[in-house]
Design brief:
Layout lengths: L7 H7 L27 H16 L15 H4 L7 E2 L5 H8 L7 H21 L10 H23 L14 H5 L4 H18 L10 H15 L2 H12 L11 H4 L6 E5 L12 H4 L12 E2 L1 H10 L8 E3 L7 E3 L27 E5 H13 L4 E2 L2 H13 L9 E2 H11 L6 H7 L3 H12 L14 H6 L11
Antiparallel strand pairs: 1-3, 2-6, 4-5, 7-8
Helix pairs in contact: 2-5, 2-6, 5-6, 6-8, 8-9, 9-10, 9-14, 10-14, 14-15, 14-16
Protein name: Putative outer membrane protein, probably involved in nutrient binding
Family: Belongs to the SusD family.
Subcellular location: Cell outer membrane
Amino acid sequence: MKQLKYIGFLMLAVISLQSCHKDLLEPIPEAAVSSENYFLNDQQIETGVIAIYDAIQGVNSTNLNDNRGIQHEYYVTEMRSDNTRTKNQEGEAAQFESYAITPNNGIVENYYRSCYSTIFRSNLVLENLANASETMAPIFEGEAKFARAYSYFNLVRLFGDVPLIDRTITPQDDEIAFTRVATATIYDLIVSDLETAAANLSNGEYTRASKAAAEALLAKVHLTLGNYLEAQILCENVMGYGYTLEPNFNDIFYNEGNNEVIFVIAYTQGIEADSQDFSAEFMNGVGRTVGVNYVTEDAAAFLDANGGNRTEFSYRIDPLQPTQRQVVKYLPNGEDGGANGNVFASDATLSGNDWVVIRYADVLLMHVEAILAGGQETTNMAAITSFQTVRDRAGLTDAVTSITKQELLNERRAELAFENQRLFDLIRFGEAQNVLSDLSTANNYSFTATDLLLPIPQREINLSNGIMTQNPGY
């Protein structure tokens, strides 16, 4: 992981990957070191903090028993929107685009388990803060609570009510591990965690949690909850920290560490333990399960009409299959393959592209959304300034005098295409039912309102011995 010097073999001795499964409820020491006698000082707790980011990063592996972390997120988000699909409509991947997901879908289970692995590792750090120095304890707390809130925010938006686990638990804690808690209670924890993170952290990092990252994520939480004034204040805080838009849109993704990125999940090319393979999976002929997260005709047509200079850096015609369109924000290691197609100089399945979670353009558009406050239109000059700034960078310089809700949703689609934002935006704006129903009708899919939530993995339900319930429609 870039800029994170973590001790992999040591963490394997301390922490095993974690989920709510009864047989994985507590860390299993694989050597003489255990969690009870390890996290005794700042240096040791630091390895636990870095292991949290490692859990979000996920394992670059074809084995669904390995937690894939964010490397699988595009399946459960972008491919369930109108932006992307699979190339061949085969296997478990195609279930997402056609809204035919089953509770036994291994990708869904893996993502659920990965989120709880991050939550477990966060709880482990939080329970050992008494052993940290007075200087480092609040920083470790902020990072752990940021990661826990980030994971729960994804879980609650994707699955609805989920188990709330705010401490490490044992195999005897079935009620905690499998009892689904109301989303309002989960959001209370998310808000509290992010407020603590924002208070405890400073700025300067982008591969680790920062004050700006916590405030930006909390702003999105408040937008989701309809707390518009709180979101506006947080966005304006972040807008005062010196972030700027990259002049060249392509540099956001290929000039890593630029002044637009606020928080990324970092990867390193060529190192199996620290690389990712989703860049290769977006391509044709260079990955393991290639041709997923391909651009829909609808998204391509939308970008052609509305993307400005962002379009060429968002998708391209597949050089090996001209009827298909590929995402290009994450070409493996920045290599475009040239005129001969996807002939990469390096192993594309060991890519080093960072995954951008939060960037400044998103904050500017959230600022507009907060000022719009659920209304249909605004002429507020602060909102117009933020909106115009994003459009100007895209070469769309016609003066804006008002912004409608639909125009803002369209701008978010053009700016953040293929960044796992579209589904959540549709839901937050109240447009998911209409947009996805139309998409389903046009493509003979089977979307219904219950498809806005994923199924609880069947394995979790089986392990719960009757405690855990399934979402409607599954």
